[in-house]
């Protein structure tokens, strides 16, 4: 009898969890359901279709150029190659929103107690991600590799602030496999957070517990470390080959075009809209005020460290941007890695 009650209780919990997940996905869909194709969908889905069927637009320079998002093309290629690109975009969008919703729910569960509160958090997050960034970044959007990478980053963030750095590392590796830059930055944050925990035992979690007890990395942690690197290599390795065999002067000019002419709103600090920078700094200030008012805990310390690490990386990007006047080629080579992404 007791077992039957437990089974029914678990069933109700599962039903509520699924309902919450779908409602969060609906919030994200409302934020990203603009007409197809989005500017990036035209590129991503065309390359995915060509990867599935190389005879489609055979000889096209762009479609046959090297790319760093092969996992996306391989997974979405069969879809893009069998239905219209518009239909593929909508199916891919819904898949992305569902993955984002799952990642977001995982990220906020350590912080927000109830489903209703998490749904409100999702709505606030959806508004904030569109209204507080300074470098033109977005998270909830169309069908492209970045959306799926962000879903994995949210999972990594949730595991990291919960003190499960090994799982965070694996999720970061999956994000990097989808999108090397999005996932790569999260892996760097994971490394820095984990090092702080091992060195200082700060914030508890598996790393802090091991450090406090004098233990080093466990066998499981080493396996996760190697596994995360292996998964990330799916995205990193093709990205590293993009400039293979390209003369240095052409690489330098390509970096300048990429940073200065093509994507300055993402990459070049001096080109950022002053109002966007102001609203971003005000958001950081608001976060600091709210956080200061919360009671002390290991969870809070980890949230603060992870957040300040991402802000610190952004600040480092600003410092690199100051080098444009004295070493422009080096500055552009460094800025093309999207220091302001997280």
Rounded to an integer in angstroms, the radius of gyration calculated over CA atoms is: 21 Å
Q: What shape does the CA trace take?
A: globular
Q: How many domains comprise the coordinates?
A: 3
Quote the distance from N terminus to C terminus. Answer: 50 Å
Count of beta strands? 0
Structural class call reads mainly alpha
Helicity range:
over 70%
Total of helices: 15
Provide key terms for this protein.
342 residues, mainly alpha, 3 domains
Please specify the SSE layout and strand pairing.
Layout: H1 2-32, H2 39-52, H3 70-82, H4 85-108, H5 115-131, H6 145-161, H7 165-178, H8 180-200, H9 205-212, H10 219-240, H11 248-262, H12 264-267, H13 274-292, H14 298-321, H15 328-335
Account of the protein in words:
There is one protein chain. The protein is an all-alpha fold and 342 residues long. The chain folds into three domains: 1-143, no CATH class; 163-241, no CATH class; 243-342, no CATH class. It has helices spanning 2-32, 39-52, 70-82, 85-108, 115-131, 145-161, 165-178, 180-200, 205-212, 219-240, 248-262, 264-267, 274-292, 298-321, 328-335. The protein is globular, with a radius of gyration of 21 Å. It starts with a helix and ends in a 7-residue tail after the last helix.
Brief summary:
It contains 15 helices and no strands. With 342 residues, the chain is an all-alpha fold.
């Amino acid at each position: 009898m007791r077992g039957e009650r437990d089974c029914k209780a678990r069933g109700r919990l599962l039903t509520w969890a699924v309902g919450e997940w779908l409602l969060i996905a609906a919030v994200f869909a409302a934020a990203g359901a603009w007409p197809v194709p989005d500017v990036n969908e035209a590129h991503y889905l065309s390359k995915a279709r060509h990867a599935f069927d190389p005879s489609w637009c055979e000889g096209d320079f762009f479609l046959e150029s090297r790319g760093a998002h092969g996992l996306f093309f391989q997974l979405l290629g069969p879809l893009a190659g069998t239905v219209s690109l518009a239909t593929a975009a909508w199916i891919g969008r819904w898949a992305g929103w569902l993955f984002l919703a799952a990642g977001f729910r995982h990220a906020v569960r350590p912080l927000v107690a109830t489903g209703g509160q998490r749904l409100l958090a999702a709505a606030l997050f959806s508004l904030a991600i569109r209204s507080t960034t300074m470098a033109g970044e977005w998270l909830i959007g169309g069908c492209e590799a970045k959306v799926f990478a962000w879903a994995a980053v949210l999972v990594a963030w949730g595991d990291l602030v919960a003190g499960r750095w090994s799982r965070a590392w694996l999720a970061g590796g999956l994000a990097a496999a989808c999108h090397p830059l999005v996932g790569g930055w999260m892996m760097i944050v994971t490394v820095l957070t984990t090092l702080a925990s091992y060195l200082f035992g700060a914030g508890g979690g598996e790393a802090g517990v091991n450090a406090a007890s004098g233990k080093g990395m466990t066998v499981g942690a080493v396996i996760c470390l190697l596994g995360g690197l292996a998964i990330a290599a799916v995205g990193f390795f093709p990205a590293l080959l993009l400039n293979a065999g390209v003369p240095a002067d052409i690489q330098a000019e390509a970096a300048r075009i990429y940073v200065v002419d093509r994507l300055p709103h993402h990459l070049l600090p001096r080109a950022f809209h002053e109002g966007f920078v102001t609203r971003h700094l005000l958001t950081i200030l608001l976060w600091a005020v709210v956080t200061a008012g919360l009671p002390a805990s290991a969870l809070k310390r980890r949230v603060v460290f992870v957040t300040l690490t991402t802000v610190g990386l952004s600040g480092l990007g600003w410092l690199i941007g100051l080098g444009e006047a004295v070493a422009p080629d080096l500055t552009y080579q460094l800025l093309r890695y999207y220091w302001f992404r997280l």
